[in-house]
Amino acid sequence: MVKPTFSRFIQLQILLCFLVSSTVLNAQNESFIYGDALPDAPELASRGAYKIGVRTLDLVNKGQVDVLNSKNGMDPIYDRPLKVEVWYPALLAPGATELAIYKDVMGTAHDSLRPLTPITFKGRASRDAAPLATEGPFPLLVVAHGYVGSRYLMTYLTENLASKGYIVVAIDHTDSTFRDASPFSSTLVNRAKDISFVMNQIGDLGKANNKHFLSGLVDSENIGIIGYSMGGYGVLNVAGAGYSDGLVDFFSSMTGGSKAIAELAMSNPNFPKVDPRIKAVVAFAPWGMERGVWDTEGLKGLEIPTFFIAGSQDDISGYEKGIKAIFEGAINTDRYLLTYENARHNVAPNPPPVESLKPGLHMDEYYRYAEPSWDERKINNVNQHFLTAFLGIHLKQKDYSKFLELEEDSNEKDWTGFKPRSSTGMELLHAKPAP
Q1: Residue 5, in any domain of the structure
Q2: Element of type H or E holding 335
C-alpha cells in the first residue's frame, strides 16, 4: 500500500475545506433570508403581523432635464423612466407562501474590471399578491439607494417595514443602478427629484377612487423618506436641506454650463417648499458634506425629525467632517445619530450575496455589501429595530420612546430592547432643535 505524500495530504485537506465551506454556504442560502432575526436581534427587529406582497411598477417622470446631453449651458428635455418595487400588506390565498425571488446584478455597467454578474436571492414576500383592502390606509415610505445600487439593495428593511403596516416603495434611480451606471451629474441632479416624483405618483395611485391595486391603501398625508449614501443626499434635500452654491458651481463646471441643479440650492428664492406630508427622514451615510454640498444655511432648512445612521470609519461619506457634521449642523430639527463603531460605509445594504463569495471576482463585489468589522446581518437587525421605533413614533404615533431614550455609549449599559451583552460597539446621539 502506497502512503499518500505530504503534498497530496494538503491537497485533500484543501478540497475537504472547500467542500465543507460550499455545503455551509449552500445551507445558509437555503435557510437564511435577508432580514431574518438572529438570536441576539433586538426586540423590534422581528417582522410585523402583516403578510406582504410585492409588485414592480414602471413610472415615467415627464419633461425632465437630460443633463447627460447638456451642451453650452443648454439643457434638453426628456421623459425619465423609473422602475420601482412596492411592498404592501397583502391577503394571501390559501396555501400561498411568502417567498419571492429577486433577480439583480453585481458589478457596474461599462466597467471591464467589474462586469455585470447576475445574482438571485430570496425574500419573504408574495409576488403580485392581492392587497389587504380591508385595512389601511398605510403610511408611505419611499426608499432611495446609492450610486451605484438598485431597488433590491435593502430588501431586509423594505420587507420588514411593510410587514409592520407600511407601503414601501424602493426606486431604481435611472443612470445610477448597477445595470445603467452613467456619469455622476445625472445622479446629482435627479436623486431628490426622483424621490419627490415617486412620492407624489404613489400618492396619486393610492387615491381611493383609482382602479389601481394601491387604491385606498396609501396614506399619502403620512410619509417617511429613507435614503442611503446618494439616497441620503437626496432625502435631505427633499426634506429642506438646500444645496450650497459651491455645488451649483461644481455641477455647472462638470456639465458644460448646466444650471439644472440651481433650483435645489438654498440660495434659490424659489427653493421648493418642504412637503408637509413628510413626517420623518432616515439618512444612512448621506454623502456630500465633505465635498461642500451643504453649508450652514442649507442645513438649517432641515426641520423634519431625522434619524442618521453612520459608521465611525466611513471612508466614502466621511464621519467627523461628513455625516456627524450634518447631524451637528441641522440645528432646527429633532435628530438622532446612530454610529456603528469601526464600521465603514456599508451600514445600510443587504448582506453579501452568495455570488460575491466566488473566487476570482473583484474584492469590491464583496465589499459593496460587507463590513470589515461587523456582521452585516447584525447591522440589518439593529436597523430594523431602530427604524421601527423612529418611524413608529412619527408615522404611527406608537409609544416607542423608551427605545430611543438610551445611554449614549452602548458599552456602559445594555440598551432597552437589546438582549444582555448584545448592544456593544454603538453610540446613539440625540439633539433637539435649537430654541
Answers
A1: no
A2: strand 335-340
Q: Which residues pair with 65 in a beta bridge?
A: 77
Grid coordinates given for 158: 423594505
Give me the helix-helix angle, 376-396 and 155-162, nearest 10°. Answer: 40
- Is residue 23 in some structural domain? no
Residue 343 in grid coordinates: 464600521
**Count of domains observed in the chain:** 1
**Residue 254: phi, psi to the nearest 5?**
-90, -10
Those residues with Cβ within 8 angstroms of residue 253's Cβ, 6 or more apart along the chain or in another chain: none
Give the mean pLDDT of 288-299.
Answer: 98
Bridge partners of 172, per DSSP, are 83
326, 61, 295: which is closest to 189 by C-alpha? Answer: 61
Query: Is residue 8 included in any domain, yes or no?
Result: no
30 in a domain, yes or no? no
Phi, psi of 11 (to 5 degrees): -60, -40
The per-residue DSSP string of 284-304 comes to ES---GGGTS--HHHHHT--S
- The 10s digit of each residue's pLDDT in 206-242 is 998 888 999 999 999 999 999 999 999 999 999 999 9
Range of the domain at 304: 40-431
Choose among 295, 305, 294: nearest CA to 333. Answer: 305
Other Cβ atoms within 10 Å of 210 Cβ, number:
13
What CATH number is attached to the domain comprising 246? 3.40.50.1820
- For position 30, what pLDDT does the model report? 52
CB 329 within 8 A of CB 337: no
DSSP per-residue letters across 192-214: HHHHHHHHHHHHHHTSTT--STT
pLDDT at 127 over 90: yes
